[in-house]
Design brief:
Layout: H1 3-16, H2 27-50, H3 55-73, E1 92-93, E2 96-97, H4 98-116, E3 121-122, E4 131-132, H5 135-138, H6 144-165, H7 168-181, H8 198-206, H9 215-236, H10 239-251, H11 257-269, H12 276-293, H13 298-309, H14 321-330, H15 334-363, H16 376-383, H17 388-398, H18 403-420, H19 428-462, H20 464-488, H21 497-517, H22 522-539
Antiparallel strand pairs: 1-2, 3-4
Helix pairs in contact: 1-12, 2-9, 2-18, 2-19, 3-4, 3-19, 4-6, 6-7, 6-8, 6-19, 7-19, 9-14, 9-18, 9-19, 10-11, 10-16, 11-12, 11-13, 11-15, 12-13, 14-15, 14-22, 17-18, 19-22, 20-21, 20-22, 21-22
């Protein structure tokens, strides 16, 4: 790929991926951010192999780094500084407004406060009142400094999510916060609860086990970040190009060849990236221009690539963040989710493949000329080393090791192969750029997973999940009274009202998934819906 192509590719990615809508930094700050990002990635890589620090320190360090980079890189108005110009102003330092520098300081304070005060602080030599007991003694009776740090962190998380993903999720989280605090005053009797004082709310949201420093932040800081980094490095070392070449050999010569190449290459690329946008940009930058040259309508070329790349989140072994959260919520190994995802992933790509085949038949779209298709042996001979990191990652996963250990060995293998492979040799600059891109991609998911912990904590603290579950199951039972007479008219069909209610509950939950999925990221949607669906389905057997 030429330098110009790289520039165009980066521009496309910045335009369509909200996680890359960053502002330009001053010269010295840009260097500082780059160095910090590399060390941030290095910290996660090393700890994945040598052992993750204790929860409150590891998650605190991760969250401090994520929030720091978000407030340095993302402007207060989304997309307002995409021209990548440095604005000269007395109210800015290195092109970052002073209020964002203040938010950076607060982010570091609020994120690391828990770790620094875990064992307690004794400043009685300055004042008898300046003694903070250890965390276990403060649980349930938190200090004023805990309330302040927790409140600051909640506000910072909502703002960080707004800057990276938009206003929808912060509004939803705000509704959950109001529900927790205003429980006794709600107009709907079924949703009423005793309510939480703000001090008790912070106790539930800020201290580990549930809330912000709960399972969602743990997953993103120990697993998701590492797999994002692996995907970026694997792509830089030539694995993405190898996938496109193999797809061309396998599907290029048939009817609708280039469109089918797009599907197959997207399926391959989905194995190393859980991001649909990264998949679209990486494979689409090659397949879409070629499709248009071969006479494919622009709308068809773009639609084919978008539909194909959407499967990246459910394509094993590296899926979207929701898959890792799902494994933790269900208390099963990630490999169990990985194996279960193979069927829906295959169904997705087969469905898109067949649609393209019949569409190409109707439009009379031919395959790629035989002379333009590379020989299979030449492709394998040149690109087989790039597959080794993926093989190592899968082997370690199925050997019973943790996902972050698998990512560690996958990244290590990718670095070794990338440096030694003469056909696709990675320079230190390639490694550096892969680390920077990986960190940028991880910022939005890191912030939203920490913020979604507020929803998880609220549901667990107020019993909201069981209340909503009861409402869904009760509504399904009421609908069953209307549906049962119709079902009984069908020959050789005998269903009980409980069976119909269970089916209707599943239908209602599925419809909710579809409607909410139109405006929410997958991870946030899964966490919110599982809190409702799980109690509902458990109550109904």
């Amino acid at each position: 790929m030429t330098d110009q192509a790289k520039i165009d590719l980066d521009a496309i990615e910045r335009k369509h991926d909200s996680s890359l809508h960053t502002r330009a930094s001053g010269k010295y700050l840009a260097i500082a951010i780059s160095v910090f990002s590399v060390f941030f990635a290095l910290y996660h890589y090393i700890t994945a192999g040598t052992g993750v620090p204790v929860d409150h320190w590891h998650m605190g360090i991760h969250l401090a780094g994520v929030l720091t980079l978000i407030f340095l890189l993302f402007p207060i108005i989304r997309g307002s500084e995409q021209k990548q110009e440095v604005i000269r102003s007395r109210w800015r330092f290195q092109n970052v407004p002073y209020y964002d520098w203040f938010l950076v300081v607060l982010s570091i304070y609020a994120s690391l406060y828990l770790g620094t005060t875990w064992e307690g602080i004794d400043l009685s030599f300055l004042s008898p009142d300046w003694v903070l007991p250890e965390q276990s003694e403060r649980q349930g009776n938190i200090a004023g400094s805990d309330v302040m740090a927790g409140t600051i962190l909640i506000v910072l998380l909502l703002e960080a999510v707004r800057r990276t993903l938009g206003i929808v999720i912060p509004i939803i989280i705000g509704i959950f916060i109001l529900y927790a605090v205003l429980g006794p005053h709600l107009p709907v009797l079924m949703l009423k609860h005793p309510g939480l004082s703000w001090r008790l709310f912070i106790n539930q949201m800020y201290f580990p086990q549930e809330g912000i420093f709960g399972v969602t932040l743990w997953i993103v800081s120990t697993v998701v970040f590492h797999f994002v980094l692996f995907g970026m490095i694997a792509q830089r070392m030539g694995l993405g190009q190898f996938f496109v070449n193999i797809a061309t050999v396998l599907a290029g010569r048939y009817t609708g060849g280039l469109a089918k190449v797009s599907v197959v290459s997207s399926a391959f690329f989905g194995t190393i990236s859980g991001s649909s946008i990264a998949n679209t940009v990486s494979t689409g930058s090659l397949t879409i221009p070629n499709m248009k040259k071969m006479g494919y309508p622009g709308y068809l070329a773009g639609g084919v690539e978008a539909a194909s790349s959407a499967g990246g989140q459910i394509t094993p072994p590296i899926m979207g963040a929701a898959a890792f959260v799902m494994a933790e919520f269900l208390e099963v190994r990630y490999t169990t989710i990985l194996l279960a995802a193979m069927v829906p992933a295959a169904m997705h790509y087969v469905g898109v493949f067949l649609i393209i085949h019949f569409h190409a038949k109707r439009l009379g779209l031919k395959g790629v000329p035989v002379e333009e298709i590379p020989r299979l042996w030449d492709v394998i001979k040149e690109g087989w080393p790039t597959v080794l990191p993926l093989v190592v990652l899968i082997y370690v996963l199925f050997s019973g090791y943790t996902p972050y250990m698998a990512a560690f060995w996958g990244i290590t293998t990718a670095l070794v192969v990338g440096i030694l492979n003469p056909m696709h040799r990675m320079s230190l600059r390639d490694v550096y750029e892969a680390a920077l891109t990986g960190v940028k991609y991880a910022l939005a998911v890191g912030a939203v997973c920490a913020a979604i912990g507020i929803i998880v904590g609220t549901v667990n603290s107020t019993g909201l999940g069981f209340r909503l579950g009861f409402m869904v199951s009760n509504g399904a039972l009421n609908l069953s009274d209307w549906v049962l007479p119709v079902i009984n008219l069908l020959p050789m069909v005998t269903l009980s009202i409980e069976q119909i209610a269970l089916f209707l509950s599943l239908v209602l939950i599925a419809i909710t998934c579809i409607l909410m999925g139109a405006g929410l990221p997958t991870t946030a949607l899964y966490i919110m819906l599982v809190t409702v669906a799980q109690p509902t389905l458990a109550n109904m057997g």
